[in-house]
Amino acid sequence: MYISDQARNSAFKTLWKEEDLSYLAILYCDANGDIGYTPIKTDNTLIYIKHEEWPKIDDVRFKSLESLLDALEANGFKQVPGEMDSLELTWSSYPDLPTTLQEQLNEPGMFMLDRLYKFQFQFNRHAPGPSAFPISVDDDSVYLRKGLISAMDEIRFADIDSLIKASATYGDNGRILDWNINNSLVRTPKITWQH
């Protein structure tokens, strides 16, 4: 089982209250070999996923990330390490590292923990210029890319709801247009080499 402290914290930290999204998601290979994702949702005390195709764990509440991963593995899923994980390898066991996400999650049921969310935010500006912006997400905060709303350039927010509320100073009707997980980048774990 691959669970970093970062993943544990991200699973119980709210990214978007309106949708109960945590900062963590499950990226997986479905029965057709396609890459899919499902967000881990949280109420700050319990975590769960909403995924009708996984009926035994759909909407079941878990007290820990370990319990959720145990339930996935008990239902035939196999975890692989992602970019939040660390591996210790010997030089003699140098692996062929995947170059695409499709290579990394190459069998149905393979999954990893992930946090590379992408959000598109829209609001009606009080000033001329574009009204739709990408929201960046990092380990524990969300922010608008620099230069989109200059007064908000250096500000980090705990969640998307706080960012939307703050944007009301500069425009009206802020809302999320679209969101997903970046499913084009390979998630290379941190590798430490033993001599």
Compact description:
The longest helix is centred in the middle third of the chain and has 10 residues, at 65-74. This protein is 15% helix and 35% strand. The protein is α+β, with helices and mostly antiparallel strands and 195 residues long.
What does this structure look like?
The chain is an alpha+beta fold and 195 residues long. It folds into two domains: 118 residues, no CATH class; 65 residues. It has four helices and twelve strands. Strands 1, 2, 3, 4, 5 and 7 form a six-stranded mixed β-sheet that branches. A four-stranded antiparallel β-sheet has the order 10-9-8-11, covered by helices on one side. A hairpin with a 6-residue loop joins strand 8 and strand 9. The mean pLDDT is 86.
What's the SSE blueprint?
Elements lengths: L4 H7 L2 E3 L4 E9 L5 E8 L4 E2 L16 H10 L3 E2 L6 E5 L10 H4 L5 E5 L2 E9 L6 E6 L4 E3 L15 H8 L3 E11 L8 E5 L1
Parallel strand pairs: 5-7, 6-12
Antiparallel strand pairs: 1-2, 2-3, 2-7, 3-4, 8-9, 8-11, 9-10
- The average pLDDT is 86
Terminal Cα span: 24 Å
Please provide the count of β strands. 12
Secondary structure: helix percent: 10-25%
Order of helices and strands: HEEEEHEEHEEEEHEE
* Total domain count: 2
Structural category: alpha+beta
Largest beta-sheet characterization = 6 strands, mixed
**Rounded radius of gyration (Å):** 18 Å
What descriptors fit this protein?
195 residues; alpha+beta; 2 domains; six-stranded mixed beta sheet; 12 strands; globular
